[in-house]
Amino acid sequence: MDIRNEAAIYYDFTRPPFDDVPFYKERIPFPEASVLELGCGTGRVLVPLLDSCGYIHGIDLSGCMLQICREKISQTGVPSGKVRVETGDISSFDLERRFDLIIAPYRVFQNLETDAQIDGLFRCVGKHLARNGSCILNVFHPWPLDRIQQAWGSDQEHFLSETPVPGGRLVRHERKQRMDLKKQILYPEMIYRRYEDQSLVDEAHLRICMRFYYPEQFEKLATDHGFSIIGRWGGYNGEPYGEGQELVVQFTRNV
User: Fold this and answer.
1) At residue 147, does pLDDT exceed 80?
2) I need a labelling partner for 108 at 20 to 30 A (CA). Which of 3, 54, 137, 207 fits?
3) Is 236 helix (H, G, I), strand (E, B) or coil?
4) Using CB atoms within 10 A of its CB, is residue 171 exposed (0-12), middle (13-18) or buried (19+)?
């Protein structure tokens, strides 16, 4: 089942609260480098990277998101041999090639709910990294547990944004109903409502899990799985690690 089926058409109208594309472009190690994007979705990051690398491969569980991604790729006119996207599980895949850079932008890693999925992702990353390759993962920097407990566990809808769309407007809300603080997992529900004038013409719901990590925990995940951290940031504009709204780590295999 594609849980993003209903909401896929609205994803590109609700951009992240930061521009991370330049950050990833700068970390492509050389012009002919091969890049793998885990959870490429609609191609928000993948498509802009096409001109900055030799080859890019994207995998995602959502066929609906990938359909949008393929449409964007077809409009770029890039040679078909330079890019490929396919349905795949980021915790269990074998692409039979290695990559100079592996990325999972905008908190994709947090959708892995179980330890087995996390172990699987790191195992796959290790198998697919080129000799001098590296991987970049990102999660949000969470609030303290007591503040999370106060904010979550309610049926109330929280307004997030209102965006103009062709013929009307898209209003996005969030419900923070479920949480498991012992396992550090949040279960948000995203609600998209499209209006024409004042009439509601469509409503889509997206329920996901977001496993969260504090700065030391996030770094330790990589090192415990046999990698060495070579870079870390608190955001995409040079914020110090642990001080910004994001947690971003870059790591490579231990030699």
Assistant:
1) yes
2) 54
3) coil
4) middle
